[in-house]
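Researcher: Sequence of Cytochrome P450 follows. Predict its structure.
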Amino acid sequence: MASADGSDWNRHRRCTAAAFSENVNEKVWERSGQEASKISAEFLSRESVSDTRSSMIRISFTVLLEACMGVGSNDRAIDTDEPGPDVATAENDLTTLLRILRPRPTSIIERLWFLRRNKTDLFTARCERLSKFISALICYRRGHPLPRKDLLASMIEYKDEKMLTDEEIRGNLFLFMFAGHETTANTLLYIVYLLAIFPHWQSWAAEEIDAFVSTSGPNSNLTYREIFPRLKRLQAIMYETLRLYGPVVNIMRKTSSSQYQPEKVTTFDSRDVMIPGNVRINIMTPALHTDPEYWGPDSLSWNPGRWMKYSADNKNAAPGLASEKLDQSKIDHLLSWADGARVCPGKRFSQFEIIAVLLNLFVQARVEVVPGPSMNLDEAQVEALKAVQQSRTALTLQMQEPSSVRLGWCLR
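Model: Prediction complete. Tokens:
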């Protein structure tokens, strides 16, 4: 799907987009909340946490497999006399591949690991084993269909109608496993770090969470469709993080004219630009997302409040939140999921997952940066912000050494 174009891309889109339905979104919300609650309890039981990234990957991978592929975290891919690769092994393989492909580390010890001769062999071995897991997963789901339709079921159905080949199904599953879950996990990682670095924004989010819980009750039967729109501040935090630290730095496009005729493109500031046909265009999202002409003089600062506009229309909101609305015009300028016909099919999937995880991580807990030796809290926050700002691009934008920052969790 990622490499297809034109009518070929439309075919892949049709075979995958239908799977991101209301039933799948409901499963995403439910499992994201459950996994986040488990991780929250784990964090609270520890003096400090330095492996936040692996925890976010675990959440995202579990949600992706269960919601899109119908496989639980304790399942094996095939049920035969010779068991196939299990989910835990697949998660480990995927994590290893992402580690190999991340930005080159800077410490001497890690550089030696990076330059080891058998790194290529390790990469190949993990790819082969992950490929076997995907093939086994497809075979398993053919023999064990679910009552609900998910991504894998949708692609198997289109395979039976001869619209997808086995190779294309494997490729799309690999894409969603490799890119889909990592982008969400990285976004959650950045949000957790930034909320620890800027505690006043964490308190801002907690005020909304407390207001929601007090009006809905801890055992609310509200659906995700009713809850999600009410968590405007959490959405603002998500959007602001994606604005500055979105996983996709470059969006590649091409003008579609086969006649090599100029094609008119309208810019954000309503100017018409003529671009020749069959020309590849590289859209630099960080430049668009930090343009001071649109985002203001503080365009490089992390400020979730910029996504709010204020009115007194909503009389039913909790005190202090009544006048807040998300600024849709700013949301329309965010390209983290791309835009137009080729918008990411999992856009709502990832949004529901991120907000559900944040709600359940912070409903009872707070996070802060743990100062190192001879360091006060302010200094620790400055160092943590440096670690965030020194992110580099591999497959996606990533912090180079997130484990260098220790976080502490406590009940609030």
